[in-house]
Amino acid sequence: MINSLHEECGVFGIFENKTTFVSQTAYLALYALQHRGQEACGIAVNDDGVFTHYKGSGLVPDVFHAEKLHSLGKGNMAIGHVRYSTTGGKDVGNIQPLVIRHIKGNLALCHNGNLVNADTIRREFELAGGIFHGTSDTEAIAYSIVSNRLKCKTTEEAVKKTMGVIRGAYSCIVMTATKMIAFRDPNGFRPLCLGKTADGAICVASESCALDTIGAEFVRDVLPGEIVVISSEGVKSIKTHCAKKSSICVFEYIYFARPDSVIDGASVQHARMRAGKFLAQEHPVDADIVIGVPDSGLDAALGYAQQSGIPYGIGFIKNRYIGRSFIQPSQHQREDAVKIKLNAVRENIAGKRVIMIDDSIVRGTTCARIVRLLREAGAKEVHMRVSAPPFRHPCYFGTDIDSSDNLIACQYDTVYEIAKVIGVDSLGYLSVEATHKIAEGANVCFCDGCFTGEYPLPVPKEFSKNKFDQKIGNFADYYQTLD
User: Fold this and answer.
1) What distance in Å separates the CA atoms of residue 430 and residue 69, rounded to the nearest whole number?
2) Distance between terminal CA atoms of the chain?
3) How far is CA 26 from CA 29, 47, 180, in A?
4) Is 450 a catalytic residue?
5) What values do phi and psi take at 59, rounded to 5?
6) Of 233, 247, 253, 453, whose CA is between 20 and 30 Å from 440?
7) Which burial class, exposed, middle or buried, applies to 19 when counting CB atoms under 10 A from its CB (0-12, 13-18, 19+)?
8) Helix, strand, or coil (residue 400)
9) Is the CB of residue 5 less than 8 Å from the CB of residue 401?
10) How far apart are CA 275 and CA 305, in angstroms?
11) Is the Cβ–Cβ distance between 336 and 328 less than 8 Å?
12) How far is the C-alpha of 43 from the C-alpha of 35, rounded, in Å?
């Protein structure tokens, strides 16, 4: 990924039938989900109704050194979260899991996604005397569950009632004294899956790669709209909200998810290769070598090479000790990070016509610099192919697509003009139609609103395009995170 784009979080939960160091399992799972959020993380452990938690800013191994991890103690349940924040979003009150003590007992909550009506829900609670400690959507969900819990016999009933009110993207895990409850919005914007360990522990994770890391078997995806209740009595499914047509974010396959994950029945790695193959069909060009921009461009480059017959090669070496360029909240910091992230392999590039594959172009500034790396390495020609359509619209469901004022596809009328700005000899984007075909075997439909401007859910008036553009530069005035 060579420009500013980010998805917010990763969630994990585990329910054991015995007391053990579940925090260590959660730690390993969060490590596997680190790509989904690199700015903050947290773990909450349940020991017979007594909650212990710790969270902080930084990468998983930096926040949870051995002593701190051990201090969480034993338990039979744990939930964890990795988070990315936008500009001004480093408020510690937004770091998850949120742990709440209320009249019905303890509750902890992790959330991935973004609500379109969080502001309305928050305002209603504040007018009724509610006190919020952060600025995230997650707190609005937590308040709704706790409020409904006072009227319901069980937490799952409160969750069911809450899902009738909240609108937008949410893959959540709730932990109570006796249960772990996972639920996913009816459109299924963000992934969530179930797993089972050899000793019978039940796990919930944003991606299947987290299950692989802890040695758990993938069982199935949580259905869009489904509520899964995990307790000592077993696993119960509530499908009251499952009637809607699903709309998972297609960019989960293009960029967000780890390539070794399987989401809603489709291999992420295979989807990226198919994107590359479609690119080769739609935008062929004579060249000597096909290269990918690490990491999400590599599989698409391999697919392009296989389809076109042009040799695949290594064009860049990535510094493995720096994360994705979007981990820094400001554009200046992101560009500084990119400077030490990639280095062109001159021996493979010099004197050759190069096809460079990447997943997207957002602003175009970082892209232009990487193209210059290839020119400086002696590339004779540089042809860029992008395994996604152009970004032209904001996302309201958890992906921080920039203001249209900064989107390069909104600033220039033609692909030729964009190619000239970033310094390539030719440029080709994957078509929207082909994008919908990349996830072979997926059991769902896709949201492509950031490409087409057509969204699966109505966007409230307060989320109009103009207001979104005005607020995106300062999320602290609206809500700093899209967790």
Assistant:
1) 44
2) 21
3) 5, 15, 14
4) no
5) -70, 160
6) 453
7) middle
8) coil
9) yes
10) 12
11) yes
12) 17
Helices (H), 80-183: 118-127, 137-149, 155-163
Between CA 48 and CA 184, with CA 218 as vertex, the angle to 5 degrees is: 70
Q: What six digits make up the tokens of 130?
A: 């509610």
Q: Is the dihedral of CA 121, 400, 388, 301 positive or negative?
A: negative
Q: Which two tokens stand for residue 96?
A: 């998850």
Which of 382, 360, 364, 385 has its CA nearest to residue 373? 382
Instruction: Write down the pTM of the prediction.
Output: 0.89
Residue with tokens 């020991």: 47
Task: Please name the residue that has the structure tokens 């919020």.
Answer: 132
DSSP element (H, E) containing 79? strand 75-83
User: How does DSSP classify residue 87?
Assistant: T
Which residues does residue 386 pair with via DSSP β-bridges, in sequence order?
A: 358, 429
Q: Which long-range contacts (CB under 8 A, 24 or more apart) does 241-245 make?
A: 241/160, 241/163, 241/164, 241/186, 242/186, 243/186, 244/186, 244/187, 245/187, 245/445, 245/456
Query: How many other β-carbons are positioned within 10 Å of the β-carbon of residue 477?
Result: 11
Please check whether residue 180 is in contact with residue 230, taking contact to mean a CB–CB distance below 8 angstroms: yes
One of 9, 209, 249, 447 is an active-site residue; which one? 9
Alpha-carbon span 155 to 138, nearest angstrom: 17
Per-residue pLDDT of the chain (483 residues; tens, 9 = 90+): 444 455 569 999 999 999 999 999 999 999 999 999 999 999 999 999 999 999 999 999 999 999 999 999 999 999 999 998 643 356 778 899 999 998 888 999 999 999 999 888 988 888 887 778 777 899 999 999 999 999 999 999 999 999 999 999 999 999 999 999 999 999 999 999 999 999 999 999 999 999 999 999 999 999 999 999 999 999 999 999 998 888 999 999 999 999 999 999 999 999 999 999 999 999 999 999 999 999 889 999 999 999 999 999 999 999 877 655 444 545 555 555 666 789 999 999 999 999 999 999 988 888 999 999 999 999 999 999 999 999 998 888 877 776 777 899 999 989 999 999 999 999 999 999 999 999 998 988 999 999 999 999 987 665 544 333 333 333 223 222 222
Which among 74, 138, 54 is positioned nearest to 398, based on CA atoms? 138
Contact 73, 65 (CB under 8 A): no
